[in-house]
Design a protein that fits this description.
single chain; alpha+beta; Butyryl-Coa Dehydrogenase, subunit A, domain 1; Butyryl-CoA Dehydrogenase, subunit A, domain 3; 4-stranded mixed beta sheet; 4-stranded antiparallel beta sheet; 8 strands; 46% helix; globular
Length: 400
């Protein structure tokens, strides 16, 4: 370790000790998203925003980002040092960190210098919150079928339509929005990517209550909302590739999330007297092994990004995580039996949350089926799935 890196780490350790809470080694079978109140969700968002601002002010957000985008312009070893030194501290930024990981790479790659310098610094600093506005009631797995339209009116687009399953949209100031700008073009060709102000007339956000009691997702309605043409990212009618960049980053972000679920499952198996059951032990071994492999995948992606190499396909990681969640939820239910369907044990709520996560993780960020197609076509070079509507004008495709 060089003297420069040693000094950097020493300063970082001091800042973490002064500004952050250590992560408790054993938080019990705590839940994160199970039956929260509106007040709890709002408080979580506020805590996340506060941490985002603190980290940014201290220079520990956007460490390797270019300065013109609000970053520090630092070196890769600095980011690595922060990741290692902060591992035992609570530096969680919630959906701020997620939306930055999803949206920022696309804006950096396809945005104009003015868009980058205008929008990214405030996103990075936590002053402005963003959300993703892609899926629609009739365009989920087949996202390219989207029909939310944007019509050109001078120097503005007029947007009308609906989006759904929009994480944290109720807290967002800006949104990354996929719209239909040319209904006469095939569905992938007539799409544009816009940055939209969420705090304007013509934008209505309605929270959606899920099976876990949370209202993290929302549906968003646009009624002639206006977006400056200056907020078009990439070229008009060529926004599909920008959206694909976001989806790829989202898959990698979801796949990079860390989990200590295996430790909790082992603890629960011991507590319930199943630690010597050969079938349970095999289930635990599978989950521990897959956690380790997922960690190696994440390290491989991080290394490739630092070295500017192409990482493994994000769909591999996304699918692996989704299958991990299914194994974990199944085993938690097997261990607790009826206690996994009613709160009769101190781990009941935790197990129920784990079971329900298998569904959201297999849908969010693109369904498993979509990612299997992506792998077949992109990574393996297999023939594309035949379809009658790929070259047909979007307006002529039957709608549900």
């Amino acid at each position: 370790m060089s003297a420069e890196e040693s000094a950097y780490r020493e300063k970082l350790r001091g800042w973490l000790a002064e500004n952050c809470e250590p992560i408790k080694e054993d938080s019990g079978f705590a839940t994160q998203h199970w039956m929260p109140s509106d007040e709890e969700q709002a408080a979580h968002h506020t805590r996340s925003q506060t941490m985002q601002k603190k980290l940014f002010a201290a220079g520990y957000i956007g460490i390797t980002w270019p300065v013109e985008a609000g970053g520090q312009g630092g070196e890769a070893w600095m980011q690595k040092a922060f990741r290692e030194e902060s591992a035992s501290w609570n530096v969680m930024t919630g959906f701020y960190g997620s939306i930055i990981a999803m949206a920022a790479p696309a804006v950096l790659s396809f945005g104009t210098p003015e868009q980058i310098s205008t929008h990214l610094p405030s996103l990075l600093s936590g002053e402005v919150s963003w959300c993703q506005l892609f899926s629609e009631p009739g365009a989920g797995s087949d996202l390219a079928a989207l029909g939310c339209k944007a019509e050109r009116d001078g120097d503005e687009y007029v947007v009308t339509g609906q989006k759904v399953w929009n994480s944290a949209a109720m807290y967002a100031d800006m949104g990354i929005l996929l719209v239909r700008t040319d209904p006469d073009a095939p569905k992938h060709s007539g799409v544009s990517f816009l940055l939209v102000d969420m705090n304007q007339p013509g934008v209505e956000v309605r929270p959606l209550i899920q099976a876990n009691g949370g209202g993290h997702f929302a549906e968003v309605f646009f009624d002639e909302a206006r977006v400056p043409v200056a907020n078009l990212v990439g070229d008009e009618n060529d926004g599909w590739k920008v959206g694909r960049a976001v989806l790829g980053a989202e898959a990698q972000m979801i796949g990079g999330s860390k989990s200590n679920t295996s430790e909790k499952l082992i603890e629960l198996a011991r507590e319930l007297g199943h630690s010597n059951d050969p079938v349970i032990r095999q289930d635990l071994a599978r989950i521990v092994t897959r956690e380790k492999i997922l960690g190696w995948m994440g390290a491989s992606i991080a290394s490739a990004m630092r070295e500017r190499r192409k990482p493994i396909d994000g769909s591999v990681v996304k699918l692996y995580v989704a299958k991990n969640r299914r194994h974990e939820g199944t085993l938690a239910t097997k261990l607790l039996g009826a206690g996994a369907t009613a709160e009769s044990h101190h781990a009941s709520a935790w197990a129920m949350e784990l079971l329900h996560m298998r569904y959201s993780i297999s849908i969010g960020g693109g369904t498993d089926e979509v990612h299997h197609n992506n792998l077949g076509e992109r990574a393996l070079g297999l023939p594309r799935e035949p379809g009658y509507d790929k070259n047909q004008p979007w307006k002529d495709i039957p709608k549900s």
